[in-house]
Design brief:
Elements: H1 3-14, E1 36-37, E2 46-52, E3 62-64, E4 67-71, E5 76-81, E6 87-92, E7 102-104, E8 107-111, E9 116-121, E10 127-132, E11 142-146, E12 149-155, E13 160-165, E14 171-176, E15 186-188, E16 191-195, E17 200-205, E18 211-216, E19 226-228, E20 231-235, E21 241-245, E22 250-255, E23 267-268, E24 272-277, E25 281-286, E26 292-297, E27 307-309, E28 312-316, E29 321-326, E30 332-337, E31 347-349, E32 352-356, E33 361-366
Parallel strand pairs: 1-27
Antiparallel strand pairs: 2-33, 3-4, 4-5, 5-6, 7-8, 8-9, 9-10, 11-12, 12-13, 13-14, 15-16, 16-17, 17-18, 19-20, 20-21, 21-22, 23-24, 24-25, 25-26, 27-28, 28-29, 29-30, 31-32, 32-33
Length: 370
């Protein structure tokens, strides 16, 4: 089995709940942030429910064991029933929650702009611990398990990557970069990699938090990257999307089309990479050399990160529409007009799509049951 297929298989196996059902437990589906799931979507999608919060929903959902976990700029973390959309519990923080939740071992981990990383009980929303950083947390947390110890990794606007014990919330190590850390750190092969507003890719050993390598990105990286076969895939704010060989510390290829930045995080498959752009397009390029395969034109910036599932790609746009397109050729298969910008990224599990919207609501799409 080729290494990339092993990576994807690992991610897909991790993205299943303890009951065996499909799950989407964190931002972009799994630790390597590949944005790929084995879940299938029905051909006929309909709006199943909406849930109204009191602020824009820029957080991206996690879906585990029949529940949706998502933050809102109204300062709350919500657990919703996946079938009905009704709230199961609400957990308040001290600031807007743009961070995407991580659901792991019966707990939900999420950051807030109040500078705290929170751990709460996934069943009832009761607080377990909180860990204070020096500034706001916008990116979703990630995780790593070594032996019988599980650790949570999260970036902060205090310029630091924080690693804490998942059970106690006690710090294991911190790593300081040169500027804000806005996205989620990606995890694979005993290392975590993130791009920062210091225009660098930081490769960190997860055991001790020591830097393994630093690679010039060329401009600041506000989104999250994806890891596959020791390569990093990401876009930056000088209008380029790149593939970087982390072992060699060099750029393998660059995609640049129009003079617009890239904020969207990519979905990585064996033969192609998908990512949104502020040029109002969803791009699909060859994974080996970055040559374009197709693009989908929308009417607004695409900061939303695409999710790939069984021959389809799902993405939101600031034009207020949610799109489902054919992975093969980019043909639009379905779209739904919400009417307000979709900065949140879609979560796909159990035949449903869940996405937040700047109108303050969470939307769930799927097939109507008889």
């Amino acid at each position: 089995m080729k290494p990339l297929f092993c990576l994807i298989l690992t991610a897909l196996l991790a993205a299943r709940s303890s009951s065996g059902a499909e799950a989407w437990p964190m931002f972009h589906g799994g630790p390597a942030l590949l944005g790929v799931t084995s879940a299938k979507l029905p051909d006929a999608l309909q709006l199943l429910w909406t849930f109204k919060t009191q602020g824009p929903v820029k957080s991206s959902a996690a879906i585990v064991n029949g529940k949706v976990y998502i933050g809102s700029n109204d300062t709350n973390l919500y657990a919703l029933d996946l079938v009905t959309g009704k709230p199961v519990w609400v957990f308040p923080t001290g600031g807007p929650v743009e961070s995407s939740p991580l659901v792991l071992d019966g707990r939900v981990y999420v950051g807030s702009t109040d500078a705290f990383l929170y751990a709460v009980d996934a069943t009832n929303g009761k607080p377990v611990w909180k860990y204070e950083t020096g500034d706001k947390i916008l990116g979703g947390p990630n995780w790593v398990r070594t032996g019988d110890q599980t650790r949570i990794i999260v970036g902060s606007y205090d310029y630091k990557l924080h690693c804490v014990d998942a059970v106690t919330g006690k710090p294991a190590w911190t790593y300081e970069s040169g500027n804000y850390i806005n996205g989620s750190p990606a995890v694979a092969g005993g290392r975590t990699v993130f791009g920062g507003c210091d225009a660098l890719l930081h490769v960190i050993d997860l055991a001790d938090g020591k830097q393994v390598k630093e690679v010039e990105a060329g401009a600041y990286v506000a989104g999250s990257l994806a890891l596959a076969d020791d390569k990093a895939y990401f876009g930056h704010f000088e209008n380029e999307f790149q593939c970087v060989d982390l072992a060699a510390g060099k750029k393998l290829w660059t995609f640049s089309d129009r003079a617009f930045p890239f904020y969207s995080s990519p979905a990585v498959l064996p033969d192609r990479v998908l990512f949104g752009g502020r040029d109002k397009r969803l791009h699909c390029v060859r994974r080996d050399n970055g040559e374009p395969l197709w693009e989908l034109a929308t009417r607004g910036k695409v900061d939303s990160s695409p999710a790939v599932c069984a021959g389809k790609a799902v993405v939101g746009s600031e034009d207020g529409r949610l799109y489902v397109v054919s992975l093969a050729d980019g043909k639009e298969l379905w779209s739904y007009e919400i009417g307000r910008p979709l900065d949140s990224s879609p979560a796909v599990a159990e035949g449903r799509i869940v996405i937040g919207c700047d109108d303050g609501s969470v939307y769930c799409f799927g097939a109507k049951t008889p």
